[in-house]
Structure formats: C-alpha cells, structure tokens
Amino acid sequence: xxxxxxxxxxxxxxxxxxxxxxxxxxxxxxxxxxxxxxxxxxxxxxxxxxxxxxxxxxxxxxxxxxxxxxxxxxxxxxxxxxxxxxxxxxxxxxxxxxxxxxxxxxxxxxxxxxxxxxxxxxxxxxxxxxxxxxxxxxxxxxxxxxxxxxxxxxxxxxxxxxxxxxxxxxxxxxxxxxxxxxxxxxxxxxxxxxxxxxxxxxxxxxxxxxxxxxxxxxxxxxxxxxxxxxxxxxxxxxxxxxxxxxxxxxxxxxxxxxxxxxxxxxxxxxxxxxxxxxxxxxxxxxxxxxxxxxxxxxxxxxxxxxxxxxxxxxxxxxxxxxxxxxxxxxxxxxxxxxxxxxxxxxxxxxxxxxxxxxxxxxxxxxxxxxxxxxxxxxxxxxxxxxxxxxxxxxxxxxxxxxxxxxxxxxxxxxxxxxxxxxxxxxxxxxxxxxxxxxxxxxxxxxxxxxxxxxxxxxxxxxxxxxxxxxxxxxxxxxxxxxxxxxxxxxxxxxxxxxxxxxxxxxxxxxxxxxxxxxxxxxxxxxxxxxxxxxxxxxxxxxxxxxxxxxxxxxxxxxxxxxxxxxxxxxxxxxxxxxxxxxxxxxxxxxxxxxxxxxxxxxxxxxxxxxxxxxxxxxxxxxxxxxxxxxxxxxxxxxxxxxxxxxxxxxxxxxxxxxxxxxxxxxxxxxxxxxxxxxxxxxxxxxxxxxxxxxxxxxxxxxxxxxxxxxxxxxxxxxxxxxxxxxxxxxxxxxxxxxxxxxxxxxxxxxxxxxxxxx
Length: 758
Hints:
By secondary structure, the protein is an alpha+beta fold. A hairpin with a 4-residue loop joins strand 30 and strand 31. The radius of gyration is 31 Å and the shape is globular.
C-alpha cells in the first residue's frame, strides 16, 4: 500500500520508522491518523506492530506525542485540517478561533486566525460558530496567533454555549446558575475548577469526565464579566448568542480617517425643511421627511414627498475593515440597558446622523403622489441636506393636535401641516392595498439609575408613528422598483404567506370562536383583517392579534423575490435604515451603481455573494430578536424576584401538553404553570381548541382566559417565572372523555421548575 503524503523516508532499521518520520507523517496527514494508519503508511506488519506500539508509547512518555491510539499528533501541534470554534476577533478585526479537539495536558489551546478563502466569505461566519478549516503554522513573529486557517465549511453549531452565573460558596467552590430556561440545571463547582471566577460572574464552563465511568462535572473555562456590577444584564444574551460587542482597534482607527464629503456632484437639498421624527430617546437619526403640494396643474390635489436617508455608503466602502465589521454584525441590537451598534459611534451618532441644522450627505428619493395616494413616479438623488428640526413623535403629534411647541410653531405651515396632508392622502392608497393590520402594543422597560426595572409602560400608538412608517415603506418600494428597472441584483425583504400547517392550526382555533378564514391559495392579508375586525367585539381582541401573528411566516432577506405578504406588496427592499441594518447599505450601493451616483456602488465581487450575505444577515436579525427578548425576560424576572407569593392578574397566552403559559397584565411578563399543579383532575391537551380540559369535571383553561396567578419561583439569570393557578377552571363545551391527549394524575409534586419558552 502506498504511503500517505509526508512519509518520504524509508523505515529505520528493524522495519520501524524513526520518531522523526512518525512526527513528519502525523503533521502532514490530511485526516485523523493513529497507530493503524502509521503501520499502513510505513508497511509495518506482523510482529513489528508490537514494536511500533512500544515506540509510540515511548514517544508519548517523552512528551512528543499526544492523543490516543486512533488519533495521534505531535504534542502541542494541530493537524493540517481541524474543527475550530470561532471565539472572537483580534486587534485587526480578524476572526480568531481555538481548536475544538485539544488535550489539556498539551497546555494552553493555540489561537488560530481565520482568513477568507474569497472576498466576502466572512459574512458566513460569526462568533460561536464551528468551522472545519485548513491550518498553516505561523512563525513565532506573527503575533498572538499560532496558526492561520482557511475555512472549508461551516459545521453544525453547538445547540447552546455552556454559560451560567457563578455563585461562590463560603466553603470554597460554588455553583453555576442556569441562564437558559429550557435547561434549568445547576452545576456544582469544586474550588480547583473555579478558573479565577468571582461571585456573580457570567462564566463559560465545560463538562469533563475524570474517568471512563465517572459522572461529568463542570469546570469554568472563562469569566466573561459581571452583569450586575456593570449594570448590563444584556451581557448574558450578548455572550450566549455570540454577538460582537466591542469594535476592534483597527476598525476604530479606520473610522478616524473618514472625512465628510463636499458638495461636488451632489444635489443641494439644504434649503428644504426636512424633519427627523424619532423616539424621544433616539441617539442616531438616519431618515428625514418633507412634503409639499404638487404645483403641477395636471396633478391637482397631489403631493411631492421627499425621504432623505443618511449616506452610509459614503463612509463604508466595500472590502474595508468597517465594511467587514458591519457585515459580521448584520444589524444593531437594542437592549433596555444599552445598544450594540452595527457601526462605530463616530459614524452612527456623528458623521451619518442627520443632526438638527447640520449639513449631512444623504441619498434621497423624491416621490410624486396623486390625490388618491397612488405613486406616479419617483427619482433618487445623492444630495446634501440640513435637517430643519429634530422632533419626537409626541412633539410632532402634539403640534398637529393643536399644541405646537416653540420649536414646532414656525414649522407648521411650511413643514408639519403639508406632511400630514400628504400622509392622509397616501393613507387612502394604503387602506385600499390592505396590508395586514395587526394591533400589538409594545411594552417598553424603563430602567432606573441602577439599571433595574423602574416601570413597564405601553407607549401610545400615534398617527405620527404611522406617518413615518408609511413614508419609509413607500421609499423602500421605490428602491426595489428602481433596481428591478435597472436590472441590478438586490437583496429583497421578503415575507411568504403562512404555511399550510400554521393555517390549519389557526383555522381550527378560530372555529372554536365561530370565526373562519379561507383556505390557502389566493389568500391575502384582507382575510386576516376581517377576522381582526370581528375580534374587536370579543373580550380579548389582543389574543386574536397574537394568534394571527404566530401563524405568519418570518420575514427574511433574499436576492430572490417572492413579495411581501404582510405588507401586500409585490416587491420590497430595505433602504431607510443603513445605520442599523446591513441590508439597507447593500441597497444603497446598488442604487449608486445603477444610477451612476458615484464610485462607491455595489462591486462585481459583491454580486455573487448576495445570497450568502442575505442568509447571514437574516440569521443575525433572528439572533438579535432572541437576545433582546431574553434580556427583557431576565430584567422582568429580576424585578419580580422579591415578590414571591404575590398574586397577579394574567391571561393564558399559551397551552401545551406540559402546562400553561401566562402573561401578566401589568408588566407583560411571561411565566409557566406546570400541568402537574392544576389540581386533582386528569387534564387533556385539546390542541385544536388550545385548551386543557379535565377528564372528570369537563372544566379547564383555554387560550385567552383571564386568570389570577401566584408567583412561586423566579430565576432572574434565566428569565424564568413559575406560577400557581388561583382561578378555578371553567366549564367547557368540549367532551373531554372522548378527546385524546396527555393525562395528568394531579399527584405529582412541583419538583424542579422545567418551564419552556414559547
């Protein structure tokens, strides 16, 4: 049999290879190599195999070999191809990783720097990902990294990183509290396994066995900071999801070299009273709006609306360190206690923020609407603008309602009133189009100076919010239409119609309320809107809104267009928020290229990568949503932790075989009631009715029921709450004796809380 590459010399005397030959072979073997592979490569057979075994054992005792008989390697070295875990970035912004397979006796795990196999490949990988890579040993003068690696493929990521909160014991050691409410297991930590962690630290740990039949035990690998000390409970979600937090020094240095552009080649919009209208606590402003009556006599009653968006493409050039970093992050992440931005503050809060009365470069679209609100035409320009005023939604709305502030008073006739008149005209076409009209008020957490929950509020939904949303939607549609017309590839924002499975579940539930929805096929949002209108007369209209929301598909980014079902639009692309979404930056570059608006448009190298980038930024968007939701849950669980035994008004927000999910009325907190705590009856899960029904009594609980619950347990680190049902079950018109489902003896003890998130 031919030898594998690397075994270039003949075996030493006695038919055995030398130690040097063995090491040379192991270092060049393309895959795992052990005793069998060495024997085959050097033609060792018969009794010589015993001598080879002794030689390998001798090398292991000397410290030159590591591993077991099936997987041997030179001690302290990595093979040519190995699985890695991406752990962070270096000072240059490059992704760095550590080997997944490593003998702790070999010392500290070597650091590996990842390099892209081709331009833009970084978008496929993020912190926490596992990759199979080809490795190359670097000279000692190459910095902290010992190896350089080119990723071959992305491996299945571990289900979740092993993270927890370390709680020290006075006797030494301590325990690790869970941060995942799907896996509420605590781990004891011996003093020798603390890894230098302090009480309250967020830690990463691993499970190890000290023997073949020993029980796994936890040891701390890394301390990641204290969420309480830093008043940043979002630290947990940031590390759990591998969200990039701090910007590398190389990225910040590149940021400092940026200079504002001149007027050369730009349209002058500085005299137009464009307004930014944002939340009161907004720090960056990437969109401004203006409207005026169309002076064209052929368009009587029509309006010209201008939407100006910060020109991020002016500063973030393809292939730059800033661009790679923005691609890696995908989007900004908004937590109650802080924001993890996509772009450094120098750009997001300064160069690209449309500050009041300051000149800023922008990409603007001028849209002409007729008296029915239908768009006749639009034009994109690269321009220079100066915001006439920075207003909050509340301030702008108050002005329209007849209570203008001193700032708004001089803007009424020339800016605010025309803006509202244009909106009410465009709203006619929106209502005719019939987008999905869900009414789901968002709760906002207000923190005190200590970073703890002061109160939870539901901001009022104003006409000013709808005005900005509608004009942004129109600008996004215009961007997609222009790029399609110019036949330039783009990343669409797509939203598929509900799947048949979800529609069936929704239809079964609505039938229990004597409500119907058409079958799939030519289904449009107006079918859901009819149900939502009927629901307004029911005791819990917000429940119907939530159930319909759950039935919808998830929106995503894709270079292939399937339309946007929720907005009832044939084509749609994100254009209006390039400070916080990478998708919008791609669309800006595409428009610049398509309309010859400058040298910093979409490049030939980027176009083949659009599908990979679209998938990556869809993933980072979902990551951000999960992290934001989990942080809110943890903050509210901490807020309620000292109210064990208190009772709360709630609503049944979910029904499963294992119990009920409830949502508290005042805070919107989600909690769980195990089915084993619902009394002395046998409860069946009636899936079609979203109910738990007692077999003997015929009484039970249904989705949407208003109930009173008692708080039994709170685990702030995991954002988990467990409740006891106080409200008695009500009679059901369902015959439980003939319904299949899970039986509950009602005799189980509560035991360890094992609630699951929805």
